[in-house]
Structures are given as structure tokens and as C-alpha cells.
TrEMBL record:
Keywords: Cell membrane, Cytoplasm, GTP-binding, Membrane, Nucleotide-binding, Ribosome biogenesis, RNA-binding, rRNA-binding
InterPro entries per record: G_ERA_dom (IPR030388), GTP-bd (IPR006073), GTPase_Era-like (IPR005662), KH_dom-like_a/b (IPR015946), KH_dom_type_2 (IPR004044), KH_sf_prok-type (IPR009019), P-loop_NTPase (IPR027417), Small_GTP-bd (IPR005225)
One record GO biological process: ribosomal small subunit assembly
Gene responsible for this protein: era
UniProt name for this protein: GTPase Era
Length: 306
């Protein structure tokens, strides 16, 4: 629900924790069901936004921390370091641990580096799966964790059953900075899907054009229309820096863009598990630096042209 106050807030929240801590379950509760489709496939792309939740007039944007999402036997230093790449820019960080497992090696590894990585951002501790332990265990765990790191707040939650989730969400809403909403509210539910679809097209383009336009294009999903027959109509705009780039993108008789469109459509369709109609348009946007900033605000790294 939104209210009419102009005091909006918007900010990025990084949810970190070991694989299986319950991050996806929590996200689904806070953001909505659609995210669940994305969550387990998102690693294949560079899109970093996992979902956006509204709480009153606050827009809470959850960013991905890839290193910690990959299911592995145990966390090592490299994984933890990778995870911080998402958390480092966040306005608020939430460390999620499992009540019944306590302070594992993985949690220790995160705690070791947390201080260096989060800067001034408030860090909350969310002890999840409280349905699995006695209250006395929780109190001891809270004490031990807070002795290791000065968490701004500690929440005891069950992401699955919903206990404590509202309190955490309300706290997040008041902890992110004041400022205008970053995403239109009618796009929030589709946002991760829109971004992933745009990334897929961009990837096909950079693969195809490699040397010619290495870092000089961005793709945005402008339209997303679910059709009654179960298919999706997706409109994307490919932004280039100069008019001269348009011709390179189109190729002879539009061949390049046609091939790219076909490959992208196939991949998006496979990802969504449904039929996709993809429409691509090329436009010039000369303010490249502005563009770069905008892109990185969305959690995407478009200069990474590997
Ligand atoms: N008992 C209990 N189980 C929970 C709770 N929250 C999550 N789970 C379970 O824990 C398991 C892992 O949850 P996920 O949400 O997939 O965990 P994750 O941190 O996203 O895991 P990765 O995607 O591997 O990083 C699932 O089987 C959930 O059903 C909870 O509050 N209580």
C-alpha cells in the first residue's frame, strides 16, 4: 500500500547469508511470488536486482549477492569476497543465519570480513528458522553474534511461517535513505524479469558484435505484455551512442539485428518457460556517462564486456 506523502524513501538492501539460509523464502514473502521464478536462475545473468518491495511510501530494492547464492559444500574466502560485490554498495545489509545451525564456519567467514566491506551501512542480523529451536537457544545465539559484530538490530524470524517478517520489512523501510522512488510502481512485479530479458539481448548483441561496439550499448525492456494465450510480448530498446552505430547494429538488410533477435527470443523464451514475441528497436542516446550511471544504479554492470 502506498500513501500520499511526498516523503518517499528508496534504497538498496543486500541480503547475505549462506546457501540455504532462507533468503529466497524471505524475499518471496517481502516481494511477492514472481521472484521465485527468477531466484534460482538469476546466476546465469549479470542482473543484480532480485526484487522490489513497497512498504508504505518506501521502495526497498533487493540486490543480489551472487557469491553466496551458489549452492556449494562450504563457503570459502573467494565466495565471500564475491558476495560482497553486491553488498558493498547497499544502503542496508541484512545477514541471515539459521537458528538451529548457529555460528557455522561460513557465518564466521562472513563475520570476518563484514566490517571492512559494508562501510557506514547499517547491518541487521536476521536469525531465521526460529520455528526449529527453543527460545533459550535464540537468546544465546543473539548474544554471541552481537559480541562478534555490532549489529544495528537483531530480528528473530521465520521466513517460512512469516514470523517477524513484517517487523524486518518495516525496519528496512525506515533505514533506507529518503529520496524519490527509483522504479515506477506498476513495473515492480516484473522488474527482475524485465532486467534479465534485457541482459539476455545485450549478451547476444555483444557476442555478435564483439570488436565493433564493445561497451557502447545498453538494452532496456520498455514493454511487457502478458497475453491471454500464455505468451509474452516484450518490447526492448537498444540504445547506442552515435547515429553511425545504428547501421552496425542493423547489419546488411537488417540481418544482424534479426539474428540477435532470434537468439535472444529463444533464450528468453526458454528462461520464462513460455512463448515470447520479441520486438527490438534501436535508438541513439548520446549522454553516455549519464547512461552509465543510470545503468549502474539499476545494479547492472555494462562495462563488463567479457
Ligand atoms: N523450518 C524452516 N525452514 C525454512 C524457513 N525459511 C526457509 N526455510 C527452508 O529452508 C530451505 C532453504 O530456503 P531458501 O529460501 O531456498 O534459501 P536460500 O538462502 O535462498 O538458499 P540458496 O538459494 O541456496 O542460497 C527451504 O527448504 C525452505 O523451505 C523457516 O523459517 N523455517
Amino acid at each position: 500500500m502506498t500513501d500520499n506523502t511526498s516523503n518517499t524513501r528508496a534504497g538498496f538492501v543486500a541480503l547475505i547469508g549462506e546457501p540455504n539460509a532462507g533468503k529466497s523464502t524471505l524475499l518471496n514473502r517481502m516481494v511477492g511470488a514472481k521472484v521465485s521464478i527468477v531466484t534460482h536462475k538469476v546466476q546465469t545473468t549479470r542482473a543484480r536486482i532480485r526484487g522490489v518491495a513497497m512498504e508504505g511510501s518506501a521502495q526497498i530494492i533487493f540486490v543480489d549477492t551472487p557469491g553466496l547464492f551458489r549452492p556449494r559444500r562450504r563457503l570459502d574466502r573467494a565466495m565471500v569476497a564475491a558476495a560482497w560485490s553486491g553488498a558493498a554498495d547497499a544502503d542496508v545489509v541484512v545477514l541471515m543465519i539459521e537458528a538451529h545451525r548457529g555460528i557455522t564456519d561460513g557465518v564466521e567467514a562472513i563475520l570476518e570480513s563484514i566490517g571492512d566491506r559494508v562501510g557506514q551501512a547499517p547491518v541487521a542480523l536476521a536469525i531465521n528458522k526460529i520455528d526449529r529451536v527453543e527460545a533459550s537457544v535464540l537468546l544465546k545465539l543473539t548474544e554471541k553474534m552481537n559480541a562478534k559484530f555490532p549489529f544495528t538490530e537483531t530480528f528473530m524470524i521465520s521466513a517460512e511461517k512469516g514470523y517477524g517478517v513484517e517487523d524486518l520489512k518495516k525496519w528496512l523501510a525506515t533505514s533506507i535513505p529518503e529520496g524519490p522512488l527509483l522504479y515506477p510502481e506498476d513495473q515492480i512485479a516484473d522488474l527482475p524479469l524485465r532486467m534479465i530479458a534485457a541482459e539476455m539481448t545485450r549478451e547476444k548483441l555483444t557476442l555478435r558484435l564483439h570488436q565493433e561496439l564493445p561497451y557502447q550499448l545498453t538494452v532496456e525492456t520498455e514493454g511487457w505484455e502478458e497475453r491471454p494465450d500464455g505468451s509474452v510480448k516484450i518490447d526492448q530498446i537498444i540504445y547506442v551512442m552515435r547515429d553511425g552505430h545504428k547501421g552496425i547494429l542493423l547489419g546488411k538488410k537488417g540481418e544482424t539485428i534479426k539474428t540477435v533477435g532470434k537468439l535472444a527470443r529463444e533464450e528468453i523464451s526458454e528462461f520464462l518457460g513460455r512463448k515470447v514475441h520479441l520486438f527490438l528497436q534501436v535508438k541513439v542516446r548520446p549522454n553516455w556517462l549519464e547512461e552509465k550511471e543510470r545503468y549502474s544504479e539499476m545494479g547492472l554492470d555494462f562495462s563488463d564486456g567479457n
